[in-house]
Amino acid sequence: MYTIGILQLTQNLDDAVHGFKAELTERGIHAEFHYFNADGNIDQLAKLANQLAEKKVDLIFACSTPAASAAVKLTQDIPVVFTPVFDPIGANLVLSMAEPGGKATGVAGMVKADDKLNFMERILPTIQKIGVLYHTEDSNAIVEVANFRKLNNPKVQFIEIPIKEAEDLSNLLDLLPSDLEALFLPIGKVIEDNFATIVYYTDTLEIPIIASHAPNVPDGALAGLVANHYQLGKECAVKAMQILKGASPSQIPVDTVKAPEIWLNQFTAENLGISFSEDLKEEATEVFE
Amino acid sequence: MLLTRDSVELLAPVGTWDVLEAAIEAGANAVYLGGKRFNMRMFKTTANFDDATLGKAIEYAHRHNVALHVTVNNLISDRELDNMRSYLKLLDELKPDALIVQDLSILQLAREINLSVPLHASIMMNTHNEHAVRALQGYGISRVVVNREMSLSQLSLLKERTGIEVEYFIHGDMCISHSGQCVQSGVVFGQSSNRGRCLKPCRWPYQLVDAATGLPIDDQAPGPYKLAMKDMCLYMKLPELIQAGVTSFKIEGRMRTADFVSGIVKTYRKAIDRYIADPMGYTPDLQDWENLQNTRSRDFSTCYALGNPGATAIGYSGKREPRFFSQAVREADMATLAKRSHPNPTNKPFDPTLSVHVADLASLIAACQNGANTIYIGGEVAKPGIPWTLQTMVQAVEEAGKYDAKVIITTPRITMERECGELEQFFSSLPKINPHGLMVGNLGALTLAQQHSTLPLQAEFSFNVFNHVTAQLLKNNNVKKATISLEATYEQIMQLVENSPLPLEFIVHGSLPAMITDHSIPEAVLTNQYQSDYDPALDTTRYALLDTAGQQHPIMVDQYGRSNLLFAKDLCLLPHLYSLRTVQNYRIEGQYYTPELVGLVTKIYREELDKIVAEQSAYHFDAGQLERIAAASPRELGIGTFRYRLSK
Predict the structure, then answer these.
(1) How confident is the model at residue A102 (pLDDT cuts 50, 70, 90)?
(2) What is the CATH number of the domain that holds A126?
(3) Is residue A185 located within the same domain as residue A272?
(4) Which of A139, B11, B196, B518 is deepest in the core (most CB within 10 A)?
């Protein structure tokens, strides 16, 4: 019987926890779980991590970058398995993806820029000019934008539209170039939270949005290629099991999202006069009417 | 009366199964939760209970001796009525302990199907006076979630006078506007806060400006979040709460985690039990208070429980705001594409009526001279305007009579104890005024008017008439005409009008309130938490809130000290009049206009209506008419809900 601590930033990531537990059960691992959720309150995480340490847990499953950082900062030598951390190296959780070198490993939740671009071209085959709206104070967004800068596709031009603070979105209409064909939203809390304001304006201009945050798709984005948190949790369980059986996290490579899901919004598509191909709809995990 | 452990019900919010178990384990006497279909938390797809799980949840709760209330507290549109009927039948079989309802139509539907489950009036019904409670009791409502603006002493009195069970929010997230009376999210985003989709425009940053000059005013607020209500917490006032006779202590937070809900429930459980066991020896547990503080999201306030809290209930800095749901947007203007289908050809004769709401005699005369059939006077008047007196009302009826126009007297939208007392007194003077009718703003005012007057009654937009069954209910209560909800879109209006057994009126033009707050927004930020002396500027200056999209929202502070926060743009549906032919009854909200503008707007709408009557299908809208109104208007014009096909 193992004791596993779960450190959660918000309940929005609970699917990862469900996947984690289900996979452990599937693999015959019996554990007692201590689940702590900071309910969005980042300042609480250090205290909650300490409480898990006091319970002498064998391992901590940490959801989100701040939760993983809090768990790794514990002085006790408790292994950490994390997800859906986007930049494990930048967040100082691991030394490299192949050889983490410390007490943490996990599955990074960022869908590859390559995959996202291919997805955009698949949905909008003639696309040439895509806006990238991101929050300059968001470390995850900065990582993703940097990845997009490295892409080398002569057909598609990315126009960066940085905003410094959420209120800048109030005047988004003035920031969007008039010949934009689509707007891509990298991951980032401010952009995701205030999606209603973004789609309010893009609707006026009839510009489709490609989202990175799954809930933005039913709320009016055209489509999204997103990580399945349940799946991430399951993959983390495999790593957790290895650790519980004696392997060192320092030697277990960090994986990235393997099979991102396609989410489509049929209602938005109809409003924009766009049609999804049949094979795309078939492949999609969710199609919102 | 002696207290027992059953004197008080601790009512916990539940969004998922694990929260249900945790809340019961922590000591809740009752829980409330929503189905997947109709309730006020519609954003999270993973939360709430599907039909099968609802049954299991009820069984689970009952097995643990815990009551379960199901929230069915959305406004519903005509196209959702069938689904609502079948949902009510299902709930009748599942037998939860109560349904918490908002839409008046559900009272009617419950009668039709002989619903056996008790009904509770949701906070969204904005019940705030004894007369409304009596009307609701007539429909079998056994409990009322009284509105957040009522103090403990007011609700004690309410309970004593009516015998109703009182449920009160004691902890959690609060609205700044009177519940059910905020249409900002619904009109601007097409996502209604009365239908569980609020995008929280009250959490935007705003700057206070002088409405006349647009210049910022140096206020004392420590930040720009002028409408950001703090979280309610009555932990330290538990004895007052229990002695006030509140039956059910309601904790807010149906989207919260099991840990969070469990922690709050345990804290209150312990305190309630300790108090009831030994009231004289009770003191609050300071360790528990500290825990509440440590795990809070926003700062705490006792809100209105102990009286109007003014600035003390607002979290101006925004520092502890857990998340934002939107940022300010530029409201739809006249160039925005209107989402309306081509109207069905109608054979009904077109015999339009035009009503105009005015603030003074000069405006009344201007409206009459330019072709208004009905004039609305009375009700709230914005400072520095002067309320209608008995004398000016007599004059109004006289003047309107010269033009063969009717005068209908409106009553305030919110009528708490003070206003109800004033209304009763006023109704006794009606024979002296001899108006053509009364327009009431809430169920309590309707009840009072029925008792004290034989005049024809109309229902104001604050009744949120969103479907024809609500119209039927009002008709059954002797209402002769009702106003369509401010949030309805073209398609929803058409369906409603087609099915309504009651004549309906639709507001096509004017400055409309997005929210109504019980405190004066400028007074709160200018006078340092109500501590300074009276500042005469507050009675002579008009203020506005400037949002981050650069728009000014006028604040109309009325004679009761409430703030009617207007949309930044005035509604104008002049170009769409032809497609609104089946509506027949049109209104201009002109009480914030000068007499000259009232005259001009009335004249142009009258001309267009007359042209439609004369030319019928050959009618062609003259854009020059719109330009004339736009040039004279104090604010930009916009198409409001017509930006959307359906209000979600």
Answers:
(1) very high
(2) 3.40.50.2300
(3) yes
(4) B11
Q: Is the pLDDT of residue B393 over 70?
A: yes
Which structural domain, as residue segments, surrounds residue A283?
Answer: 113-226+261-288
**Cα(B562)–Cα(B518) distance, integer angstroms:** 5
Distance from CA of B620 to the nearest CA of A (A): 26
- Asked if A70 and A174 sit in the same domain, the reply is no
Q: Are A166 and A198 in contact (CB under 8 A)?
A: no
- Convert the pLDDT of each residue in B127-161 to its tens digit: 999 999 999 999 999 999 999 999 999 999 999 99
Contact A263, A220 (CB under 8 A): no
Residues of chain B contacting A167 with CB distance shorter than 8 Å: 205, 327-328, 548
- Please name every residue paired with B458 in a beta bridge, in sequence order, or none if there are none: B439, B481
Nearest CB to B329; choose among A35, A39, A197: A197
pLDDT for B93 beyond 60? yes
List pLDDT tens digits, range A39-58. 878 888 999 999 999 999 99
Residues A177 and A134 in one domain: yes
Task: Locate the chain A residue with the closest alpha carbon to B45.
Answer: A215
B328·A197 Cβ contact <8 A: yes
Q: What is the pLDDT of residue B72?
A: 94
A4-33 mean pLDDT: 92
Residue B264 half-sphere exposure toward CB, CA atoms < 13 A:
29
Please report residues of A whose CB lies closer than 8 A to that of B339.
Answer: none
Regarding whether A242 and A194 lie in a shared domain, the answer is no
CA distance A168 to chain B (A): 8
Look at residue B42 in the predicted model and tell me its pLDDT. Answer: 57
Strands (E), B559-623: 563-566, 570-572, 585-589
User: Across the interface, do B325 and A37 touch by the CB < 8 Å criterion?
Assistant: no
- Would you say B198 and B185 are in contact if contact means Cβ atoms under 8 Å apart? yes
Residue pair B263/B291 in contact (Cβ under 8 Å)? The answer is: yes
For residue range B8-39, what is the model confidence (pLDDT) as tens digits? 999 999 999 999 999 999 999 999 999 988 76
Binary contact (A204, B336; C-beta < 8 A):
yes
Residue B600 has which token pair? 């001009």
**Chain A contact set for B45 (CB, 8 A):** 215, 218
The structural domains of chain B, ordered by start, are 7-172+231-297 (3.20.20.70), 353-510+571-643 (3.20.20.70)
Which of B46, B189, B256 lies at the smallest CB-CB distance from A196? B189
Partners of residue B18 in chain A, C-beta under 8 Å: none
Is there a contact between A38 and A9 (Cβ–Cβ < 8 Å)? yes
Q: Strands B300-301 and B231-233, how do they pair?
A: parallel
Number of domains in chain A: 2
Q: Do A170 and B323 touch (CB under 8 A)?
A: no
Which chain B residues have a beta carbon less than 8 Å from that of A37?
257, 259-260
> How many residues in chain B?
648
pLDDT, tens only, A66-101: 999 999 999 999 999 999 998 899 899 999 999 999
Is B295's CB within 8 Å of A41's CB? yes
Looking at the fold, whether A150 and A279 belong to one and the same domain comes out as yes
Q: What share of chain B is helix, strand, coil (3-state, %, to 5)?
A: 40, 20, 40
CB contact under 8 A, B336 and A41: no
- A contact residues 135-174, partner B, Cβ 8 Å cutoff: 166-167, 169-171, 173
Same domain, yes or no, for A212 and A179?
yes
Q: Are residues A96 and A41 in the same domain?
A: yes
Position B218 scores a pLDDT of 81
Is the per-residue pLDDT at B530 higher than 60?
A: no
Is B329 in Cβ contact with A200 (below 8 Å)? yes
Whether A140 and A184 share a structural domain: yes
How many Å is the maximal CA-CA distance in chain A?
61
Environment class of B351 (CB within 10 Å of its CB; exposed 0-12, middle 13-18, buried 19+): exposed
Find the mean pLDDT for residues B579-589: 96
**Mind listing the pLDDT tens digit for each residue in B338-384?**
988 777 667 788 999 999 999 999 999 999 999 999 999 999 999 99
Q: Are the beta carbons of B257 and A37 separated by less than 8 Å?
A: yes
